[in-house]
Structure formats: structure tokens, C-alpha cells
Amino acid sequence: MAKVGIVMGSDSDMPVMAKAAEILDKLGVEYEMTIISAHREPDIFFAWAKSAEEKGFKVIIAGAGKAAHLPGMCAAIFPLPVIGIPMKTSDLGGVDSLYSIVQMPSGIPVATVAINGGANAGILAAKILAASDEELLGRLKAYSEELKGDVVKKAQKLDELGYKEYMAQMK
């Protein structure tokens, strides 16, 4: 089975990266997760990125904050899709990370999700893999129907309770 590599520059990124892993778990996609700092341990990073294809990774999800070089460096080495997750930072709210990841030079694309968009990164990785996996595509379609059903239930509840009571129950 195709695997996804999940890499982050710091354990402080774990809450966001865990959302990608949770989605992949839900959809039955195998992954491997690790922490590697492209800046503090470049030798370890290069070895990991160079071996990613041999490990069976078909997509890498890379999360990083501030200078956020990790996703771009993965894309420079790994020949298959890389999804970058910009992390919200205390300095600039994650806009620095977003710009760093999304503004890649021509020839080195990184698919980029929203700041702290771990769940969407997991879904996007699964969609990429589903292009050649009918069973995964079926699970993705079921997941989409589940999301739709959740919204329909909330709308029905709002209709039944009215705005004020609905909001009171949300607190």
C-alpha cells in the first residue's frame, strides 16, 4: 500500500500534524511520522528525504513555522507530491510560514493548505493517492457524505430549536 510521510520541524507542531494523521487513520491510509529540523540537523533531513521514495512514500506532508523551509526542501529532493502546512506563529500569526511555503520557485511546487490546516493536508494526501486506488476513493466519498450529513443534522437542529436556544446549547 502507498504510504504518506509526515514530517515536522518541531514537536510543537504535533497538534496540527496529528490532525493529518487522524484523517489518514480514518481513511485507512498508512503513514510514517517523524520530527526533523531541516536547519538544526540537515544531514538527517537529507538522508530522510532521499530515502522517502524507497520507503514507499507517495506523498509527503511537511509542517513548518517561521522560515518554514522543510516543505520546500522536501519538494526539492522528493520527486512526488509534497503538501506544506504553514504553522501559526506567535510572531506573525503564520503568514510568514504561509508565504515561505507557497512562494516556491518555478519547478519546485509545494501544495499548500491553510495555516494549521492539518486535516486538509491529510484529506489532500488521500485524494492524491485515491487517483490510483478505487477503494480509497470509495472511503473518501463516504467521508464526504459523512461531512454533508453532519451539516444537515446541524441545520435541522437549528430549525427545530431556533437561533437563541441553538446558541445556548453550543456553549
TrEMBL record:
Signal peptide: none annotated. The keyword Lyase applies. Keywords: Isomerase, Lyase, Purine biosynthesis. This is N5-carboxyaminoimidazole ribonucleotide mutase. It comes from Candidatus Enterocloster excrementipullorum. Its EC number is 5.4.99.18. Substrate binds at residues 10, 13, 40. Residues 2-151 form the PurE domain. It comes from the Bacteria. Belongs to the AIR carboxylase family. Class I subfamily. GO terms for biological process: 'de novo' IMP biosynthetic process. GO terms for molecular function: 5-(carboxyamino)imidazole ribonucleotide mutase activity; lyase activity. PANTHER family: PHOSPHORIBOSYLAMINOIMIDAZOLE CARBOXYLASE, PHOSPHORIBOSYLAMINOIMIDAZOLE CARBOXYLASE CATALYTIC SUBUNIT. Catalyzes the conversion of N5-carboxyaminoimidazole ribonucleotide (N5-CAIR) to 4-carboxy-5-aminoimidazole ribonucleotide (CAIR). It catalyses: 5-carboxyamino-1-(5-phospho-D-ribosyl)imidazole + H(+) = 5-amino-1-(5-phospho-D-ribosyl)imidazole-4-carboxylate. It is an enzyme of class 5 (isomerase). Pathway: Purine metabolism; IMP biosynthesis via de novo pathway; 5-amino-1-(5-phospho-D-ribosyl)imidazole-4-carboxylate from 5-amino-1-(5-phospho-D-ribosyl)imidazole (N5-CAIR route): step 2/2.
